[in-house]
Amino acid sequence: MFSHRSPRIATILATLFGCLLTLLFAPLLNSQNLEHPNIVLIFCDDLGYGDLGAYGSLVNRTPRIDGLAEDGMIFTDFYSSSPVCTPSRASLLTGCYARRVDMHEDQTGHWVLIPRSVRGLNPEELTIAEALKSVGYATACIGKWHLGDQPDHLPTRHGFDTYYGIPYSNDMQQANRGDPPLPLVRQETVFEAPADQSTLTQRYTDEAIKFIEANRGNPFFLYLPHTFPHLPLFASTKFKDKSANGRYGDSVEEIDWSTGKILDTLGRLGIEQKTLVIFTSDNGSNGRNGGSNDPLSGRKGSTMEGGMRVPMIASWPERIPAASICNELATTMDFLPTFCAITEAEEPKLPIDGHDIRPLLFGEEGAESPYDVLFYYRRRQLQAVRWEDWKYHMELGETHPNWTTPEILAEGRPAKLVNLDSDLKETTDLSNQYPEIIKRMKTLAQEAVQKFGNGNADGSLQRNSIDLPNAKAMTLKN
Q: Would you say residue 84 has pLDDT above 90?
């Protein structure tokens, strides 16, 4: 209609056209940005279900972690795959039950890897770090590793560009066993031994901030497995003797400070909107020195809920609903497939046990747990099975070398059926009232045994770890 346009009309039309393009392509641009969020995964050691203010603690001051929960989502039914350190970490990084990847115990039979262990994670297993590197992520592991202390087993050989921390638990410096002084490692070299444990949380935090600052312009994955509140307990001068819960509270409150410093860094750099932050624990508290698994029963090392159900908080502004609660069952095994789905990263070629839990994280209406069943393994032994709200504690006793069924003939703990919806303390045995549930649980247990093994018997789906010859202690070189 108009053959000629005045400059004003042309300007208006150009502006309208620009707005139209923005409206049309904004969703695409946003989705592209969201495909590669930064990921910060904070993983405490032996932090109990009841140790955070957001989960009901009245003795530990955790305002920054509680604030993370206010900005994001609390999971009430979140599990580690194991009640102890090494297998829980193997599951987190590979998305598998520890028995599937043969990391459920040390080759000596110890329930976690010890210094000079020949065992380590098989390089054929895809880790979170390796998956994210395939789509351009910078990756760092800062803290406790505990998946092998030989050079070929260290984080730098499993997808992490950067490693700074201790290679195993902070109590593993037993001279009578031949352990070296606790090593503090950068990349693959010990630079301090014994490590000054009172400064570990502070130094981990400093290293984490440096990594974030150095990679502010590209996507990064920061895995921060804290040393504490694993025993022995330490805290820096700023936090020592400052809490109302002894040294345990001191260490927890320093972790809260650390979390706050990391969140502040994300805000200062203007990248908090494109960063997924997760805070959780490797297993329950040991129940000593001030740790709490309330309102659950049991503790670290057990397959009661207090041993394996852990706090989990996730925050991602504008993606994860603020101040939300998820009551659906999920586990640390879900991190790998979920991160791969979010970033379109390389997915594992080998079968895994975790699931993509984006519907739960993003608060999608009607989202349900992807788990039909959860298996509770302690070391090499299947001890319990959960189906819906039912949990079956299997009869326990001595394990025969050729034992391959969920029944144990030797005397030991009797079997018990509980309903977690009404009995979080797992005190009331409902076995006699629900024989059909018992029958189903035994069938599910038998399926687990066939897949993942039990006792000394391997399962059909188990894969091998890597045992290296001539293992040497990590020591400070003169």
A: yes
Strands 189-192, 324-326: pairing is unpaired
Residue from 85, 96, 326, 340 carrying the catalytic annotation: 85
Q: Which two tokens stand for residue 454?
A: 């039990």
Supply the Cα-derived Rg of the chain in whole angstroms.
24
Instruction: Mark whether 146 is an active-site residue.
Output: yes
Active site residue 96: no
Quick check: 455 and 379 in contact, CB under 8 A?
Answer: no
107's torsion region: left (phi>0), alpha (psi -120 to 50) or beta?
Answer: alpha
* CA atoms of 355 and 36, how far apart (whole Å): 19
Q: Are 93 and 352 in contact (CB under 8 A)?
A: no
Taking the CB of residue 5, how many other CB atoms lie within 10 A of it?
11
Strands ordered across the beta sheet of 162-165:
189-192, 184-186, 162-165, 138-142, 220-225, 38-44, 275-281, 312-315, 73-75, 324-326
Across 31-35, 40-44, 45-49, 114-118, least confident range: 31-35
Task: Give the position of tokens 């594992």.
Answer: 348
Indicate which residue of 36, 104, 146, 355 is catalytic.
Answer: 146
Rounded Cα distance between 36 and 34, Å, is: 5
Mean pLDDT, residues 396-424: 67
User: CA 82, CA 88: separation in Å to the nearest integer?
Assistant: 5
DSSP string, 40-82: EEEEESS--TTSSGGGT-SSS--HHHHHHHHHSEEESSEE-SS
